[in-house]
Amino acid sequence: MKKSLLHKALFAILVGAAGAACAVPAADGDMAPNDKVLNTLYWQGHEALKKSEWTVALKRFETLEAELKAKEPQSADAAVYWQAYALSQGKRGAEAKAAVERLHREFPKSRWGKEADALLRQNPQPAAAQKELATGDDDLAQIAVEGLMSAPPERALPLLAKVVKGNYSIKVKKRALFVASQLDDAGAIDLVMQAARGGDPDLRGEAIRMLGISGDDAAMSRLMEIYKTSKSAPEKRDVIQAWLVADRKDLVLDAARNETDPSVRREAINALGAMDGSAELKQLFGSVKEPDNQKNIVQALGVAGDRAGLAAIVADGGVGEDTRIAALQSLGVAGGSEELVKLYGSANTPALRDAVLQGLLIAGDGKGMAALYRQAKSKEEKQSILRMLGVMGDDAALDIIEQELK
């Protein structure tokens, strides 16, 4: 990682906007990490779940797991469970299953084990879509489908097609699509594309993701066709995620530039950040005037780690203050402590100075903040920085606090 995503979570807390809530199982406060910053990251992941931002939540909990394994390894199982939850809600069933299996393997005594198993058993599809195999044994069918992974394509494909088109549960059909996507055969991609054209929205979403994994030119053409003809924002977001997996920045940039649905456009902008698409994001920034879109872009630049681009936006007097504030905070995400300290001297409003301090907090740079404290010229300025140092809590911050208490 270029920069600890822990700091990205703090950034999201400072700048995240409220979104529509969705049904999310209650987070267990007793299982949240004891460390103050990690605890914040845990709850930030749940905020993303409430907003149905499944990819953001997944990244938060992946980062939390890595940090916990270094600091509180006994609590890391919670992070794995919530990764599985985010994957499940994002309709990435095969990956959710893998996360649950890893939870059992790495944390066999986890209190989250039963909840993880229940998560896999959940099937929110309409009753008509939940028909089991004639044998009544869904698990056996899934094992049988997985057994086709190593079979010759000419034997496997007819059987997989039979499953996808037959009287099987959605869970088994999704697994069949996944197995088909792993086969090195043109007919396998044809089967996935047929599912992407089908009427079942859940199987259609899974097929869209599988097309992204394939990266095949025909698959990309099919995804473009789906995107252009779809009137469903969730389906368009699925296509953008598929393009992200296929590393098609050009297609994602086109969506970010021309999409009229704000939620889909935001998804495309965020995807460019995750793809390290700094050049594309800066092109986009130069062509948009709406403050909300500008802020989304600078936040994505932070995820992409473009320190120079963000510093240039802050220095541009023609950019609105709210966007410059977001750029300063995003510099913290990008690890731009040096740039933040330099920019503090030219921050000519209290809001901009506070944003510099927030950026340093996100970056975890107590030394840089302590240096600003020593240079502060007014009592009010020192008070503002000292409050932020108190939140920081590292050695550099504590040295300043100790000095003031002598």
Automatic annotation (TrEMBL):
Q: Which GO terms describe its cellular component?
A: periplasmic space
Record key words, sorted: Signal
Keyword Signal attributed: yes
Q: State any single GO MF term.
A: hydrolase activity, hydrolyzing O-glycosyl compounds
Indicate yes or no for the key word Repeat. Answer: no
Q: Where is the signal peptide?
A: 1-23
Name of the protein: HEAT repeat domain-containing protein
| Source organism of this protein record | Tahibacter soli
Q: What is the organism lineage in this UniProt record?
A: Bacteria, Pseudomonadati, Pseudomonadota, Gammaproteobacteria, Lysobacterales
